[in-house]
Amino acid sequence: MGERVTGRIGRGFLVLVGFTHSDDAAKADWMAEKVSGLRLFADADDKMNLALSDVGGSVLVVSQFTLYGDAAKGRRPSFIDAARSETAIPLYDSFVTALRNRGVPVETGEFGTMMDVELVNDGPVTLLIDR
Description:
Blueprint: E1 12-17, H1 25-37, E2 41-42, E3 48-50, H2 52-55, E4 58-63, H3 85-101, E5 106-108
Parallel strand pairs: 1-4, 4-5
Antiparallel strand pairs: 2-3
Helix pairs in contact: 1-3
């Protein structure tokens, strides 16, 4: 099998996004607003004070239903809290569109497929954003 790249960015954020049954388009829009405005890049004083737009950054969005995996019982996680694809795909698309509508350059993975994701982490800064 040949290697196929579906999304690639330079400086920016890798966003692993998952949805649950109660999520809706308003939550996807809220997430896009939050991500697009996060000030995580260093300014001249080496303080995290700059947003994506300040540094010409992009976002790579990868669907990740396993974020809603529950491993509290047993040894195999339950994914019952993860939204089914008929709910998650429109929310994923809504999130990507909301980011783009805010002027953020966005690349994506492929929803529902196995992917190898490579990351060079400048930080490290890893956040869980949930509401």
